[in-house]
Design goal:
heterodimer; A: 222 residues; mainly alpha; B: 234 residues; 7 helices; flat
Chain lengths: 222, 234
């Protein structure tokens, strides 16, 4: 079981490393969306400082959703997914490994680059830690929830837009708690409670989402 | 023993079809009568509100619609879960039949709420916790319907919708509490939907009559719709 997970993880990472452009696109999208907001709402520093946590989180939400459609599409197209379904390794474990691999190449770079965006928004340096930590805890949750949607919409016409419609309402708690933790820290309060809530969401989604993803994959491929 | 057989007897779409027709007809009549009674009590019997005047009368539509919108999502998720677990076609059909009615009531609750909010709060929309979670509930309904509409194979549509409905049902309480927490953090309880503590009994009667009417309407509309689905598929 562990061996299967490790194999899938290594394979998915290798596939991405062979074509790094795919992962870079989502990251670039994140940076561009975050840079568009000041152009739209004005460059007043106080305003930017206020909206920064929310804007960065919304951009992260959109960026992680954008790359979701690719999560199972290639494996579905070349028949690998069917072999995974037929194999002895539990499908939930495979799904969890795929989500983890996807997060390592799309979520983790997002966490790393977020302080740079925060710099653009003139966020206080002592908030960078909270921002990065909230994204570190929150983006895997987005991956787990999003993967359910990706599995459900596998192979459908207009899957991308449909995926957004299905997944974005379910992202709401992560957005609220994640952006809330940074705002809490900005107000001079301890963000521990929000970060713990995010960690709780991560534990719950990591425990239950692989099961839902596996069910959805079976439904989509039969 | 005989009751058990009868239950499964009606689990088949073919045998359920005529029964659904009879129940739906009775519920349409019941809904019309109760709605007439409820509206009469609401508009002519219930006293004018001391603080809000006549405008509060939208409560007779608004509150029952909001109740139904949340309740129907749970009912829909239950039917979808039964359909997924036991592979019963009729349960999944019920789930798809309930979704548009639930979405309708959610929209109605938001719409009447906006019309109520304008004269009393001075605005059509505030980012109040209840309004926001109702809006997200509408998105969940629309997502469920869009997913089912996008899948051509009805069995796959049923089961994919079921997974989504279950995930949504698990998420609804989390969304509700996170939105509530977000709201209280930002603006406190500046706008609250809590009504005056003591409600005139005729107001309560009108509201309960309307709630019952909406119940019967939901049953009637869902059964009528499930008959269409059965006719389409079988």
């Amino acid at each position: 079981m562990i061996a299967a997970a490790r194999t899938i993880l290594a394979r998915d990472l290798r596939v991405v490393l062979r074509r790094p452009g795919d992962a870079a696109t989502a990251l670039l999208f994140f940076v561009i969306v975050a840079s568009l907001f000041p152009l739209g709402i004005g460059a007043e520093p106080n305003l930017l400082r206020t909206v920064a946590p929310g804007v960065i989180w919304v951009a992260a939400l959109l960026a992680s959703m954008l790359s979701l459609a690719r999560l199972f599409a290639a494996d579905h197209a070349d028949g690998t997914l069917e072999q995974m379904l037929l194999g002895v390794a539990p499908l939930g474990v495979i799904a969890a490994a795929k989500v983890l691999a996807h997060w390592l190449v799309s979520g983790l770079p997002l966490v790393a680059i977020a302080p740079l965006i925060a710099l653009q928004y003139d966020l206080a340096p002592e908030l960078y830690g909270t921002l990065a930590l909230s994204l570190l805890l929150g983006t895997p949750v987005l991956g787990f929830i999003g993967a359910i949607g990706a599995a459900l919409t596998l192979g459908l016409r207009g899957a991308g837009v449909l995926l957004a419609l299905l997944v974005l309402p379910l992202y709401v708690p992560v957005l609220i708690i994640g952006a809330g933790s940074v705002e809490m820290a900005a107000a001079g309060l301890a963000p521990d409670g929000q970060l713990l809530l995010l960690a709780a969401l991560l534990v719950v989604s990591a425990a239950f989402a692989p099961w839902a993803i596996a069910t959805a994959l079976r439904i989509s491929t039969e | 023993m005989s009751t058990a057989i009868r239950w499964f007897w009606y689990a088949s779409p073919q045998t359920f079809f005529p029964l659904a027709g009879r129940i739906a007809a009775a519920c349409w009549v019941g809904a019309a009568l109760l709605a007439a009674a409820g509206l009469y009590v609401g508009f002519f019997v219930a006293p004018t509100d001391a603080q809000q005047g006549e405008v509060y009368r939208v409560i007779f539509i608004h509150v029952p619609a909001a109740w139904m919108s949340m309740f129907l999502y749970l009912v829909m998720a239950c039917w979808a879960a039964i359909g997924l677990a036991f592979n019963t076609r009729l349960s999944s059909m019920m789930a798809s039949a309930i979704a548009p009615t639930g979405a309708l009531f959610t929209f109605l609750a938001l719409w009447t709420g906006a019309l109520w909010g304008r004269p009393t709060w001075g605005t059509y929309w505030v980012w109040d916790a209840r309004l926001t979670s109702e809006l997200i509930l509408l998105f969940l309904y629309l997502g469920f319907m869009a997913l089912q509409a996008a899948i051509e194979d009805p069995r796959r549509a049923d089961r994919a919708g079921a997974v989504l409905a279950i995930v949504g049902a698990v998420n609804v309480p989390i969304i509700y509490y996170s939105v509530q927490w977000w709201n209280t953090l930002h603006q406190g309880a500046s706008v609250s939907l809590t009504r005056a503590p003591s409600m005139a009994s005729s107001m309560l009667t009108g509201m309960l009559l309307m709630a019952l009417a909406f119940w019967l309407y939901s049953i009637a509309a869902s059964l009528t719709r499930v008959r269409c689905i059965i006719r389409e598929r079988e």
